[in-house]
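Contributing new records

If you add data, match the layout below exactly. Sequence lines come first and carry their own label; structure lines follow with theirs. Keep one chain per record. Anything else will be rejected by the validation script.
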Amino acid sequence: MASSNNSNIISVAYPHTVKKIELVAKYIETWAQKLMNNALCSGIVFIDCMCNCGMYTSSETGNLIEGTPLKVARILLDVAHMYPQKQVELYFNDKDEHKIQFLREHLPNDEANYKVITTAQDAHGLLETIGPQLYHQKNKHFFLFYDPYDATITWDVLFPFFRSWGEVMLNHMVSDTVRAISQVKKESTKEKYEGTYLTEFEKLLPFGTDKKAYEARIEEIITKMKGSRQYFVGAFPFYNRTNSQLYSLVHCTSNIEGFKLYKKVAWQTFDGKSSLAISHRDPLQLTFDLGEDISETSDDKKCFYITDIAKYLHRAFSGRSNVPIDNLWELLEYHPIFPSEGFRNEIKKELKDLYGTKFTKITCPETGRLITVASLSMEN
């Protein structure tokens, strides 16, 4: 992400940026392995079209830290070594030639099945070129990281990526919109917001400071872009030191495994919860009303905990005995926020401690195999 201090080649990374880098790198590490193990996959392509210089200065320590390009480049070089018969391609682009030159000096060298392409141009020029190419390469899987420094999304260049077998991660910089939209005077700025939300500027004004409304509009656009096929969208918010939401990382995929992986990695990155927002409630106080629409009655809507997952499952299976435990995890697979993997032991513990749920092993009458089942008390 290009920082506000982009007059310097190396920008300052605040804690939310460090976490964003960590999340993307963790996801790519597992994503790449899953795909390369698939016999139908001939190779992978990673695209960071707004990549910065690959290095940051930590705001907390003053030390240099690697950004997304360098972390991902090293991860995928290891993957290329593990799968020498499959191709790995990386595209890194930034409109600042100085930043790209700095990045080139720190990237790994190309190898027989590992190639890095660096360009210094407008991101949309790059995507206009490679989008149609990837659209026709059915056995090559891509991950596009679209990370602007403000609320600018140019949807027409993204269209081929939403219709291809691959994944898109968008940074929706909602803080830019909320901060500025009521004060916009320049026509060019109005056009920016109209382009991002594909809505006339006057119709955006009633949204005001309602971040949920802008985020819902982004998801509406993605739903239209993806066509008729099944598609999964996961979004996780990032907050600054004053507990204000800056942006959401919106992950888009037609593969349920990618959706499940993103939720798992996000909760791992946020230390076992859905964000690093400072919560003003005790997670053990069950104040959330998590129905199918995840509506909330609490004033604190910034962070979910394992406790909330347990409550959601308890309500869904209240009063039922001998529920195969796989049914619990399957329900979570399609939840927009809650992970179905990575926290199963913690979820089971919460169900036991808070609701007295009993887990036992029985012989499945259909298969004759030993399975774990859950018996849940009636909801109070």
